[in-house]
# Entry
Amino acid sequence: MVFGFGKKKELKADDALYAPFSGKVLKLEEVSDPVFSKKMMGDGYAIVPTDNAIKAPVSATVTLVQGHAFGFTRADGLEVLLHVGIDTVSLNGAPFKFTVKQGDIVDGGQSVGTVDWAQVEAAGLSKETMVIFTGMVAGQNVDFSVTADTVTAGAKVGTASVK
# Structure
C-alpha cells in the first residue's frame, strides 16, 4: 500500500460530542416537535443551525444515511441519530447532499454533507436539528453534557458515556 491508499480507517474510542452545525443549543424539551421534546426516540439535545455544513456529532461508524437523517454507532456501542430539521422527511432528500455512506467510519466533527436551508424554510419547516441517543437497552442510560449555549460546527461541545 503506497501512501495509505486502500487502508481502511479504524474506529477510535472517543466519548466526545461534536457540534453538527454552528448555532444555538437547545435542551431537547425546548424542541417544537413533541416526538423529540418528550424524548420518545431517546434523550439528547438540539441545535438551531446558522450554517449549512453538516458535521458528524460523534466519532463512529455510519449506520444510516436517509434523506434527512444519519445514524452513527460509536466504538462503545452508543447509537446516535442526527435528525436534520423537523418534518424534513417530506422533502424527499431534495435539500441534502451527503458525502458519506453507510459503513464509513468518521471522526467527530468531520464533514458528512450539506443542507440547503432555503428549501427547508420555503417549505415552512423548522431547522431545529436533533442529536438523539437511541438504541438503549433496559436499564441503560446515557450520561451526557453539552457545555455551551452557542456552538461552532465541528467543535467539541461535550461528552457522553453509556451507563
Summary: The two ends are 40 Å apart (CA to CA). The mean pLDDT is 90.
